[in-house]
Amino acid sequence: MATAGKVIKCRAAVAWEPNAPLMMEEIEVAPPQEGEIRIKVVATGVCHTDLYHLFEGKDKRGFPTVLGHEGAGVVESVGPGVTDFKPGDKVIPLFLSQCGECKFCKCPKTNMCDCSWSSNYHDIMSDPTTRFTCRGQPILQFMGTSTFSEYTVINQIAVAKIVDDAPLDRVCLLGCGIATGYGAAVNTAGVTPGSVCAVFGLGAVGLAAVMGCKNAGASRIFAVDINEQKFEKAKVFGATDFLNPKAYDKPISEVLAELTNGGVDFSLECVGNPEVSRAALESCIKGWGVSVLVGYTDVDFSARPIQLISGKTWKGTLLGGYKIKDSLPKLVNDYMTGKIMVDEFITHKMDLEQINDAINLMKTGQCIRCILNISK
């Protein structure tokens, strides 16, 4: 392409500081270096983790930054040493890398990678090295991706190539929310046929967890949320029972225990709230109950040790436990063949210039997923 090897000037939504509206800016995107790929972003979702960094993380060292990590696009150019990608390939950028060489990548028990930005910079959620500049200063690339920009540069170990006929304005959601929730159920929790499950929080991640429980063969799936307007959508993904914790004068864990003869086999916390995490654990049956922390947060949490001594398991998951560079093309194929739903998550579509409206919709719980059109 004519732009290969040159600095590209393009539109991006820049977060200059915490807890402030994003600003539409013209940024400069440098050419890809050794092992890197420059991607023209076509579409992106808006995820709660973007909002977490903007409104809850508030570590000023993580700004200015370009948010967005749930995108899809087309390879514009590649740097030296890149052999598996070429201009024109359809790809999904990944916030979790898979180098294939470190001790974590070689271990089947985890999807961690030593080469990921999160290994050293989880507090600011960005590697200090960036290919973005604006107004003469460096702009961080949030979670190594920055899909709220028309172009981004990413290392090849954090990019997945997908089939040419995949619709980018839908499969972009597989880069975070859907993979996270679905994988939390089928991989991390290991939901079994005939089991009873409870999913706390019915955003996109929670709904994907409901879908995972259903596809794994759960016989009963409790959808738990304080927003009852989400119950109809949860039914679409396979939920069988619906609970609003505010409708009861006792802890929701006691309600679930009464309804299930002691507690659920599997619970998945998809909010990122320590109090909800504890409630999800306490909702599990003793002896074999498994509770999974899915929602992203980085604050202290607690529980009574007897909950674990009694035989329950409490674990966490990142990106659904998928070794994502290998697994994402398979998830795209699962969508293309009808095994998993994606379209049903999309409630709004907007242009990049409407990013602050999209963020407000997410912040107020008025949408499941909003797709931003980034480039033609």
From TrEMBL:
Annotated keywords: Metal-binding, NAD, Oxidoreductase, Zinc
Pfam families: ADH_N, ADH_zinc_N
Annotated ranges, domain Enoyl reductase (ER): 17-372
Organism whose genome encodes this protein: Cyprinus carpio
UniProt GO MF annotations: S-(hydroxymethyl)glutathione dehydrogenase [NAD(P)+] activity; zinc ion binding
PANTHER family: ALCOHOL DEHYDROGENASE, ALCOHOL DEHYDROGENASE 8A-RELATED
Protein's name according to its UniProt entry: Enoyl reductase (ER) domain-containing protein
PROSITE patterns (UniProt xref): ADH_ZINC (PS00059)
Classification via SUPFAM superfamilies: GroES-like, NAD(P)-binding Rossmann-fold domains
Superkingdom as given in the UniProt entry: Eukaryota
